[in-house]
Amino acid sequence: MGFTWRFLNRAADDMDGFIGTGGKYGDIHHQIAWGGDHVLEGNAENLRRRDVRDKLIYINYAMMENDRIICRALKENIGMDTPDLLVPPGGRPYAQIQTSDASLDEVMQKIKAKSTTNIDFSRNIKPWGKARRTKQKHALRIHSEKEGGFALKTDYALPLKIDMRAKSDSRNIRLYYKLGNVKLEGERHLPGQLRIADIDTTLDLGHVGEYSLPADKFVDLTWILHRDFMAVIVDGAVCHYGTGWPYMNIGDMSPGTIRFGTADGSTITVEALSVSELE
Predict the structure, then answer these.
(1) What CATH architecture applies to the domain 98-278?
(2) Mapping DSSP to helix (H, G, I), strand (E, B) and coil, where does residue 237 land?
(3) Distance (Å, rounded) from C-alpha 50 to C-alpha 57?
(4) Is residue 230 within 8 Å of 224, Cβ to Cβ?
(5) Whose CA is closest to 143, among 119, 173, 114, 122?
(6) pTM of the predicted model, to two decimals?
(7) Domain coordinates of the chain in residue numbers?
(8) pLDDT digit string, tens, across residues 109-145
(9) Is the dihedral of CA 182, 187, 190, 191 positive or negative?
């Protein structure tokens, strides 16, 4: 169902009512299902692991909540007061990710760096995925037809602040940590969006903000992964400030890999990358 509605979503941008709503949340349904696949690592035997089952709790509750939204939209469309059969036991809903407005000063006052590492592109990175690299004097040029780029050789533990200065010839500046990511411009069929996926569950609840990436212009992207909040800052503007992301409740603070790159035939130029370990 989610896969079918994902394609509906591609044609539903200008449609009102249930078709537009169903398309949007059908796409989210599809993304949540992929989160379950990533958590299981494609092997059902991994259900024996406690950490996998912990993460699947968030995936399943997110799917239930998304189904409830779709069912409400269906009921409103047909004008029927039907029972809500998808309410979790005890009536307790899935803990939704909460977003709020926050200024740059407010966010920066919440963090304090213990150390900052400026990444040397000649020594501190290794290839990841299928990408072509072009050496430049003070930058790294990356082209990828699918999804690829480079990974840092050193893993880092939360809390973290990752800063990247880069430009794209069209779209798809992407930054990754563990299973999660931040995508500027998002997927090919959903341009002009900021998408975020949870670092422990790959839970992608659709775009969390509007952002139109300018072509051939450097932008400064900051991703703050705190124990209590997550923030994405682009060119000094807070594009997302959220609490209740699954990784905050799962509490896995083990080191993970940072990656960066592009996709869909885009070319990006990365001028600088730094990682700050936070107190």
Answers:
(1) Sandwich (2.60)
(2) strand
(3) 11
(4) yes
(5) 173
(6) 0.77
(7) 2-91, 98-278
(8) 999 999 999 999 989 999 998 888 876 777 899 999 8
(9) positive
